Amino acid sequence: MKAINPTTTKAWKQLEKHYEEVKDVHMKDMFSQDPSRAEKFSIKWEDFYVDYSKNRITEDTRKLLLDLAEECGLKGAMDAYFGGEAINQTENRAVLHTALRASKDAAIQVDGENVIPEVENVKAKIKDFSFEVISGAKKGFTGKPFTDVVNIGIGGSDLGPDMVTQSLKFYQNHLNLHFISNVDGDHVHETIKDLNPETTLFVIVSKTFTTMETLSNATTAREWFLKSVPETEVSKHFVAVSTNLEKVEAFGIDPENIFPMWDWVGGRFSLWSAVGLSICLAIGYENFSALLEGARKMDEHFKNTKFEENLPVQLAMLTVWYNNFFKAESEAIIPYSQYLEKFPSYLQQAIMESNGKSVDRNGEKVNYETGTIIWGEPGTNSQHAFFQLIHQGTKLIPADFIGFKRSLFRDKAHQDKLMANFFAQTEALLNGKDEQTVVNEMKFKKFRSEEIDKIRSFKVFEGNKPTTTILIDKLTPESLGKLIALYEHKIFVQGVIWNIFSYDQWGVELGKQLASKILAEFDDDSVEDHDSSTRNLLKQYLNN
Ligand SMILES: O=P(O)(O)OC[C@H]1O[C@](O)(CO)[C@@H](O)[C@@H]1O
Which residues is 336 bridged to in the sheet? Predict the structure, then answer.
C-alpha cells in the first residue's frame, strides 16, 4: 500500500482553498439554489437509502474528496485489503474479516493458503453446537437443557456479540444471554448470583486468551461452578473461542469445546467469526448467516461500486472533510431504534481503537488530525439529553441518523411519532430558526415586546449543522450486517486517507503493563516507584 501524506496531495491543497469558499455558506441556501440537491447527494442501495445532502458540501467538494481518495491510492489499498495482504504491517497480519462472510466458493489466500475451507469448518461446528443447545439436545450435567448463556470477554470479544444480540433481541429464542466483561468483580458476581449451574453455559471469548479481565472473570465463574459441581462436569458447561488453543487447554477447557479463530481477524472486527457464537446461540444459525450475508453484500458493494455511488467511501470522505477542514472533533451516531442502543459504544471501539493514531505508515508523527471521537445514544432519548448542544452549542458535530421505515412490533402510532422526530431533527439542524421567525412566533403567541426583546436571541437556531440520514427498510439480521460492514469499511477508507495503520492497537498496551506492575506492588505493599500523585493515591487505597 502506498504511504502518502494526504496533505501533500494536489486534492488536499485544492480542498483547503475550496474550504475557504464554502465554509460560511448556509446549507439552507444550497437547498434553495438547487432543487435537485437531495437526489444528487443520496444513494439508494438494496434496502438502504442514504441521504447525505444535509452536509456542508457542493458537487465540487464531493469531486475533490474523491480525487483525494484516488490520490491516496484507495483503489490499490482496497485490493490489498480484500486480497489478504498483510496490511496490518506493525503486526504483519492480513485483515480479513471479509473472508468470514465471503461465499463458500470464494478462494482467499493467506500465506498461499485458501482460508475459506477452514472458515466453513468452524461455521459448521458453530451451527451444530448452537442447534444442539437451542433445541435442548445438549444438556447440562444433571440432564436439564440450558436456559442461560454467559459470554465472558472484553473489547471485541464482548462488544460485537453484545451489541448484535441486543440489536436483534426481537429475533431471540428462549435462551437468556448475559455478558460479563469488566474486571470489576461486582459485574461477574451480580451476573452469576441468580444463575443455576445446572443450566448455565459459559462461553469464554478471548482471541489471545491472555486478557486479564477475561481470565479473571472466567476463573471466578469456574470457581462458582465448582462450588456445587464436580470438576469432571466442567466440559459440559464451558466452551471457548480463541486463537490460542494451548492456553485454553491449560485453563482446563476440553479441546473439543474450542472454537478456533485466526490472527487475521482483528478483535474489533471478529463478531463474524466464532466470536459470534453467543449471537448464534441467541438468534440461531440461520439468523447469524443472514447477518453475515448482509455484510457480504456490503463488501461486494464496497468492492465493486464506483466511488461516487459507494456508501463507505462517501461516508468516510465526509468525515475527512469535517475532521480535517472544519476541524470538527467528534461525530455523533444517533440510531432511532432502542434495539440499537449499544451500536454507538460498539462503534467507539471499532472506530477509535482503529483510527486513534498519531504516527503515519512511515513511522512519522502526523501533522494533521486523524480519528474522530465517536459518541451517541438512541433517539428520541438523546433529544432530551444532549441535543441542546448539537443545536445551539459552539461545536460542530456531524451526526449520522439511522432509522427504519418499519418497526418490529408494528405499532404504527409509536413508529410515526418516532420517525416524525427522526425527520424533524435533521430538518431543524439543517434550517435552524432565524431571529425574525422567532419574533413572529412570539408576536403570534401575544408576547409583550419587552418579553420578546429579552429572550429572542436565546431562541435562535443557526442551523447549518450537518447530518447524514441512513434510512433502512427494517431492522433484520441482514440489514444489521450491512450496517455494521458499512462502518467497518468506512474505518478502512479513513485509515487509508490518513495514512495510518488502522488494525493495530498499541495504545492500549501501556496501561495494561502498568496495571500488572501496580497489582504486584499491592501484594508487596510497596508503591514508592511512582510519581507523587499516583503514589499518594495508591497509599490512600492501601490504607483503606
Ligand atoms: O480477545 P482478547 O484477546 O481477549 O482481546 C480483547 C480486546 O483487547 C484489545 O486487544 C485491546 O483493548 C482489543 O483489541 C480486543 O478486542
Answer: none
